[in-house]
Every structure is written in C-alpha cells, then in structure tokens.
Amino acid sequence: MIEPHAPAPPGVRPDRKPPPQGLARLPVRPATGRFLVLACVFVCAACGLVYELELVALASYLMGDSVTQASVVLSVMVFAMGVGSLAAKRLRRFAAAGFGALETTLALVGGCSAMALYAVFAWTGDWGGVWAHGPRVLLVAFSLAIGVLIGAEVPLLMELIQRIRRQDAGGAVADLFAADYVGALVGGLAFPFLLLPFLGQLTSSLLTGGVNVVAGAALVLGLFRRDLTCRARCLLLVANIAVLGVLASAAVLVDDFERAARQAVYGDDVRVAVRTGVQEIVLTGGTDGRPLGLYQDGRLRFAGHDERRYHEALVQPAMSGPHARVLILGGGDGLAAREALDHPGVRRVDVVAFDPGLVRLARTDPGLSRLNDHAFGDPRVHVATEEAFQWLRGAPPATYDVIVADLPDPGMTASTKLYSQEFYGLARRALAPNGRLVVHAGPVAGRPRAFWTVDATMRAAGLRTAPYRVDGRDAGLTADPDRSTGGSRAPRDWGFVLATADTRPPLRLDRHEQPPRTLTQAELTADARAAEATRVTGLRPSTLVHPRY
C-alpha cells in the first residue's frame, strides 16, 4: 500500500522541494555569487601558473639546463598538488576561512619565491662547497609549497560553489575546471609577453602575489563574510594587509635588492647591467686599465686577458688557408670578428648574432667596442640578428671559406640544437671547397664526454675533425678570489674542434704582421695532444630528436 504524501507546509507549493540545508548566506543573488566564485577561480589559476613559470624561468637562468629545471618544477608541483588536494579534505567544514588563509599564504610564498631564490643564489653561490645545492634545494621546497597550496584550492572552491547553489557534481566540476583552465591560459600568456619583458622576474612575481591576495580576500571577506566569525574576519583582514605590506615593500626595494645581489654575484666592479629581449648582460671593468668581464645570464663569457687567448685559439687555426669570406655564428660581442679582420685578404665577414642588444652594446660601449677594435664599424662586417640554425637553412651553399661557431657551451639546453648533426650538416653545405669550420665545444677537463660528443657529431655529419684544447692563463674574475661569491670563474681550459669536408685539417696558426699573440704553435700542438689523451670512445652523435649532451 502506498502511503499518501504528507501535506506541504503553509506557503510552500506541494510540487517544490524545500531548499537544501547548508547554503551560504550571501549578500548577493546566488547567480552573482556563483559568477564571483568562478571569477576568483580564474584569477587564482592565472596567478598559480605565473608562480610556476617564474620558478622555471629563474631556475633556468640561474642554474642552466632549462629542460631539467622545468622537469623538476613541474613534476614536484604536480605531485604536491595531489598532496594539497588530499590535505584540503580536512578543511572543507571551514571552506571560507580555509580558502582565505590558503590564498594569503600562497600570495606570500609565491610572490616572494623568485626573490628568495635569487638571494640564495647571489649570497651563497652555486659553485661548490657546502652551499652548492642551496638554490636547487630551495627550488624544490618552493615547488612543493606552492604545489600543495594550489592543489588545496580546488576542493575548497568546489565546496564554496556548492554552498551557493547545489548542483550535480559533474556540472560543478566542469564549471570549476573551465574557469581554472582559462585562467591558466591567460597567466601562461601574460608571463612571457607582458610580465617578464615589462616588469622583470622579481617585480612580476610580487605583483602576482598582490593580485592573488586581493582576489582571495575579496571573495572570502566580501562574499562569504557571513560564514565567518568576527574573530576570523579580523584575523584574515590583518593577515591580508600584512602580506600586501610585505609585497609592496619588496616591490619598492626591488631595485636596491637587485643591485646588491648583482654586486654579490659579479663583485663591486659592475659597470653595465642590461636585460635585452634575449638575456641579461653584465659588463665589469673595462675602464681605467681594469680588465673587462662579460656575463650573459649570470655566466661568465670572458674575463681579463683570457679573452684574447680564447678568441685567438678559436679563430686563428681556421684562418690558416683561404679566408676571403668568413661567417661567424654567435660572436655578438665582436671579438671573433676582430680576430678575423686582422688577416689580410678578408673581404667579407658575416656575423649571425641572435641578440641585437649584445651587438648594440658591442658597438656603443666604450670598453667593449675598444676591446673588439670597433669591428662592427668596419664596412666588411655585415650583421644579421637571427637564430643561427634558421639562418644556415637559408644560407647559399659553398659560400664561406671559414665558418666560426662561437656559441654557448653544448650543455646548455637552449644551444643543444646548435651542436647537432643536422646543424653541422647545414654548416658543411655552406662551406666552400677547402673551407674550414671551427666550433667552440666547451671545456675538455670539466666535461670531456660533451666535448667528444661534439667531435663524434661533426664526424657523423661528414666532416673530418682535428680536436684541440687551450689552457687559460687568467681564468678568473677581477673580484677577490677568497670571496664566496667570487667563485663563478672562467673555465680552466677551452675545447675546440676544427673540421673540413675533405681531409683532416692541419692544426697550425696563421702568422701575420699583427700585435704579439698570446698563443704559440708549440702550445697549440701540445694542448692538442693533451686533449687527445682525454678521448672518450663509443659516443653516438647528437641529433635534434635525440640530444646527447
């Protein structure tokens, strides 16, 4: 027998269910409240992705190897997000207060993460000793902390949106993740195209933290304030004001902080520090008889008298033969061009440099332009600001007598494709008959496997190679070597590979009527024998799809 329905309470239509229990007491209509929650999801997702990209970018800049740094940050952060989601289950009863506290903490940790990571790198160094892994440990710690906090957002936001208006779980999740993914898209595009070029890494992370704390506070203290006790509202308000004060103070002092950190990294002799669209360039010395040092993205490119020794070793052996047409890949500082122009018979030097900012500095800076003998003012020099690989793809075949690859070390992810078999195949095509290609292949003593992989890769591209190395004589900075921050030194040696398409090239210096050289034929021969003694056999070539450095 079917029981008859109980009569409906007065004022309630019998065909409608009573409103569900536990709904939030909102100051606005439910539809508006739901929109505001989704808007907060959008903003928080954008901020979370900016924190993530900040860590990847700064870690790649400070520690190199962007693939490794991105893998560490992303994998640790995704794992931590899962941990945060589980941990947030205990906070669902206090969803509004928990979310407010969560966003305040995330804004502080994420907003200050870039500055803290840079400070540890600057004042402890990443060059050995007890603090050698300090930046890496801090990178993992921030990735864990930010990941846990981001992961805890979703369960709490799910609870809040359900407290506004009950709906099926699938629909609520779809709405929540749609706003989350769109916010992540906006944050991911804003970082490289807006925040980084206009504000820099430190200021953009602080600004992101400020946006994060304002969004979280507005949602909790505005929309869900009736769900909080008076004490909870006061504590959240004070905490948010304190975090905003910290972030604002850091933003005001960020320029002073950068100057102090830069001095800690480069010493007190910093003369020029500029960020181009490609990299940060720092020049030390170069005036009043002080040796000039050039840093690119925190890495010492050259310092002191070793500069001339390095560029002689790079260019001079390749010039011992026909050299009317010279191509320099890299070399935006103009120093390799200086060495090539010293030789009589040079009719044209093409320099393909990726960073126009470095070329501009090499033209205009008094110290650097004096060091390169104003090479870019020579009418025989023609500059193309383009990526070397792409430029070679369009280069006419059999054009150059000499090709000089003055590129960053092969171990840096951004330059790995410039040490690939495909790259050397393109360079071989651009060589004229009897032309020579010389490649800077990184330090032999420090990274013999990478050096001999370059040699194996060039041979796989059909080139006959003559590997050699040259010891440094200065190999240091002008800063006090006893300082813990003065440890970022030049390599103790440089490795090079000279190659031709036909027979194995002789390794000899081209002498001419020029100022005294720092490198002798006897040294070159002896150092080539020393390099041969370090040979690593059985190495496979590096390709675009299978890099081996």
Automatic annotation (TrEMBL):
Keywords: Cell membrane, Membrane, Polyamine biosynthesis, Spermidine biosynthesis, Transferase, Transmembrane, Transmembrane helix. One of its GO terms (molecular function) is spermidine synthase activity. The active site is at D406. It catalyses: S-adenosyl 3-(methylsulfanyl)propylamine + putrescine = S-methyl-5'-thioadenosine + spermidine + H(+). Its EC number is 2.5.1.16. Pathway: Amine and polyamine biosynthesis; spermidine biosynthesis; spermidine from putrescine: step 1/1. Residues 251-501 form the PABS domain. The chain crosses the membrane at residues 35-61, 67-88, 100-125, 137-157, 178-199, 205-224, 236-254. InterPro entries: MFS_trans_sf, PABS, PABS_CS, SAM-dependent_MTases_sf, Spermi_synthase. One of its GO terms (biological process) is spermidine biosynthetic process. Residues 1-23, 473-494 are annotated as: Disordered. Residues 1-12 have a biased composition (Pro residues). Spermidine binds at H311, D333. It is found in: Cell membrane. One of its GO terms (cellular component) is plasma membrane. It is a multi-pass membrane protein. It comes from the Bacteria. Homodimer or homotetramer. Belongs to the spermidine/spermine synthase family. HAMAP family: Spermidine_synth (MF_00198). This is Polyamine aminopropyltransferase. It comes from Streptomyces asoensis.
